[in-house]
Structures are given as structure tokens and as C-alpha cells.
Amino acid sequence: MTTLPPLPMTRPKLTSLARQKLPCSLSTIPRSQLIKEKDDIDHYLEVNFKGLSKEEVAAYRNSYKKNICVDMLRDGYHKSFTELFALMEKWDALRETARVRSLLWLQRPLEEQPDKLDRFYHYLTRAEAAERKEYFEGVYNNLYALACYFNNAEDKWVRNHFYERCFKIAQLVKIDGGKKEAEAHAHMGLLFEEDGQLLEAAEHYEAFHQLTQGRIWKDEAGRFLNLLACESLLRTYRLLADKMLENKEYKQAIRILIKASEIAKEGGDKRMEGEASYYLGLAHLAAGEYETALTVLDTYSKISTELDDDLSLGRAYEAIAKVLQSQGEMTEAIKYLKKVVKIARNNSQRLDVVRASTMLGDIYNEKGYYNKASQYFQQAFDTTAELTNLRQMDETKVHYGIAKAHQIMLTVNNYTESEDLTSLDYLLSWKENRGSILSDPTIGGSRKSTVESLYQVPENLEEHSRFPDNRKNET
Questions:
Q1: 373, 365 in Cβ contact below 8 A?
Q2: Which residues form the signal peptide (predicted)?
């Protein structure tokens, strides 16, 4: 929430006393003290009654919320009163709804929050006064100050109300070249994005982007508005594309991500351009357009290398490995995944180590190299154990167990096929203790070499047109 300076508001003496005794006070006032204070005030009224007006007496006896409303009407701010009254009614309705739905309902009534009432009075009346003079920039500034003040989880609906008001007023501001209108579109885009209405959000962000093109406008934090517009559009386009991909609308997703990539290039931010290329590459992968996906992801890897961003480079390599795996290019996929593991270890990215190791284990396990598969699945399992991630530990433990079972299966099959007493003794011994089963040194060299060869992976997989399918020995 934006922190705003204290308001320079002056109050009559009795109003100030009444404000100090509001029920929102942190300390509980003893009954005896309340009685004494009442006697003191009655005495003050009796002594000074002739010098007090009815308004001053009412200022103490009425609630603070009522005093605020009376002040607005007395000073002629009828529009401000109408708007505040509608907000207070909605506030009470939302509190009642929350109270019914939740046992942990803690939101205080508005009359117990005088600071918020002060903000309403101060900025609403100033906005109305500026509107009478047709000084619309002043109207916008005061309404925006209210939106910033209520930018918190509890009062977000109030913020959204003033965002909408700012948007309408911004259309009337003509002296700033459209900057206020651009900012208002950004706020409305955020409002719809948070509400999950992505198409409406994209429309506002597109208008925000169009209004800031060629401008050097900056926000309060010194960030260029055009760059913020590009970032907002990319974020919304990506969320829209994710939904399209879930519904298998690949062409629409690719189309909107290409548009996002073009906007990222226009923004001149290499990191943003790389992110756009990454998501576009994944969309081409989901659509089965592998060559295009490789081209786009290669662009992402080059940008990551140029920025010296190891984490992004690892993500690029992992995505490229997925494409190569889908193409059946297992040798190249393995090379990229090993790079991912190395980068992840160097940067202490354990989740990336788990993911890449699991992918490597899957490749080796699928093609029959169970010893190598076990090594990578064990690496994934050990890493999840370090993270104490129980869900992932269970998942990697299952993969590791399957690969180890495949290892044992190969040896058991070979002992079974040998059809001699020595092999039978080994099998019976293994079934009794269920420990590790190894090939017998006394068995003929040809059989031992056959078993060992099943555990080895060629250094250069390119020498083999296909991985040997050792699963044909399964029983």
C-alpha cells in the first residue's frame, strides 16, 4: 500500500476530543474514568454553552462517520457525500457477507477507522472542488491518491472503485498528451487481470502500450511506462496462451505468443525478449512443430548466453532436450540434459537437478540401459531427500525402484536361460535373502560378458543407430 503523508486537517476542540475517544482505541477505558470524563464534559458544556453552536455540540455527540457526512453536506459537497454514503453501504454489506462465511472474520466497521474516513473526506471533497473548476487533472490526482491508499488485500474493492473513476476522468484530461489516460488503462488492465478476465485486461494493456509508444514517460519509481506496458502485455498474453494450450488451441496460442515476441523486441529489453522466445518455443513443441521450436529456443539460449544468465540458459537447454527427445534424437537430448544438471548444480538449483536427472533416467530406462538409469534416478532421489520434499521423494523413489528392478531382471533372466545347477543355486540363494544378485565368476566368459554388457552404455551413442531393446528378455 502506498504510504501517504498525514493530512493537514484541523478540527474543533470537541471534535478532536470525540475522535480520541472513538471505540477503535487500543486501550480499554475503565467505567469510572468514562463517568468522570462525562462529568467533566457536562461541566464544560454548562460553563461554555453560550459560546457553542449546535454544530459544535453535535460534533461530540454524533459518531465520527456521521460528522464526516454532515461536514460534507454543510460545505456543499453533495457529490462527495453521495459517493461516500454508497461506499459505506457497500462496506457494511461486504462485512456482513464476510461475517456469515468466515469464523475468522476480523474486518472492523468503517466508523471505527477514522483515518480512512479522513482520507475519504479530504480527497473526495478536493476532487469535487477541482471538478467544479473543470480541472480534471486535479480530479484524477485526488482519486488516484485514494486508490493508492486503499491498495491492500482487505480494501482492494475500494481501490478498484477509484481505478474505474480515474479511468473515466482520464478521458477528459487533455493537457498531458495522454499520459493520465495511459496510466488509467494500465490500472484497469491490472483490475481485470486480477479478476481473471484476461481478454479485457489485454485490451486495456494494448491501449496502454499504444499510448506510450515513442514516449519517454516514467512512473513515480522512474520506470519507463512503455517498458511497463510491454511487460504487462507479455504477462497477459502468456496467461491467455496457457489457457489456449490447455484447450489444445495451438494455432491461436502460437499466434498470440508471436505477437508477444514482437512486442518484447520493440521494448528493447533482452531478458524480456528471451522470455517471450522461451514460451513461444514451448508452444511450438506442444503443437508438434519441432524444427521451429528448436529455432526459437536456440534464440533464447543465445540471449541467455549473451546476458550471462546461467539459470535461463539451463531452462533453455532443458526445453531443447524435450524437443530432441520428442524427435527421437536421444543422443543430443542426453548431452543437453547433462549440461542442465551441471548448470543447476553450480547454481544450487536442486529442483532443476531433480527434473533433469529424472528425464535422463527415463531416457536410459526406456531404452534398456538400466544401470545408467538407476544412477540418475538415485541422483534425483538423493537430491529430493536433501530438499525434504516428501511428494517428490515418493515419486523419484518409485522411478529408482523400477530401474533397480530392471537391473535385477536382466541378471535373473540370464541365470534362468543358462539351465545349469550353478545358476539355479544362485537364483535360489537370491530368492532366500533378496539381496543383490551378481553374475557367477565360474560361469563361462561369454555369459559373464553378456551380462556385463547389458550394464554398459556406449561412450558415443551416435555409433548405434538405435538403442538395443534389452526388454525382449523380459519374462
A1: yes
A2: none
Degrees to nearest 5, angle at CA 109 with 105 and 115:
120
Question: Is residue 239 included in any domain, yes or no?
Answer: yes
Cα gap 415→437, rounded to integer Å: 10
Of 220, 247, 274, which residue constitutes the final position of a domain?
247
Q: For the chain, what is the domain count? A: 2
Residue ranges making up the domain that contains 156: 1-9+55-101+111-175
Same domain for 78 and 95, yes or no, is yes
- The reply to whether 70 falls in a domain is yes
Write out pLDDT tens, residues 45-90.
Answer: 656 555 556 666 666 677 788 888 888 888 888 999 999 989 988 8
| Cα–Cα nearest to 259, from 278, 276, 283 | 276
353-383 pLDDT per residue, tens: 888 888 888 888 888 787 888 888 888 888 8
- Would you list the DSSP string of 214-267? T---B-TTS-BHHHHHHHHHHHHHHHHHHHHHHTT-HHHHHHHHHHHHHHHHHH
**Is 165 in contact with 127 (CB distance < 8 Å)?**
no
Please choose, from the candidates 239, 271, 273, the residue with its C-alpha nearest in 3D space to the C-alpha of residue 256. Answer: 239
Tell whether 183 is covered by a domain: yes
Q: What is the C-alpha to C-alpha distance for residues 10 and 376, in angstroms, rounded to an integer?
A: 72
Q: For 435, which DSSP code? A: -
| Of 247, 265, 297, the domain-final residue | 247
Question: Do 220 and 230 belong to one domain?
Answer: yes
Kindly state whether residues 141 and 196 are assigned to the same domain. Answer: no
Give the separation between CA 135 and CA 145, rounded to whole angstroms.
Answer: 16
How many Cβ atoms are within 10 Å of 291's Cβ, its own excluded? 10
Is residue 197 in some structural domain?
yes
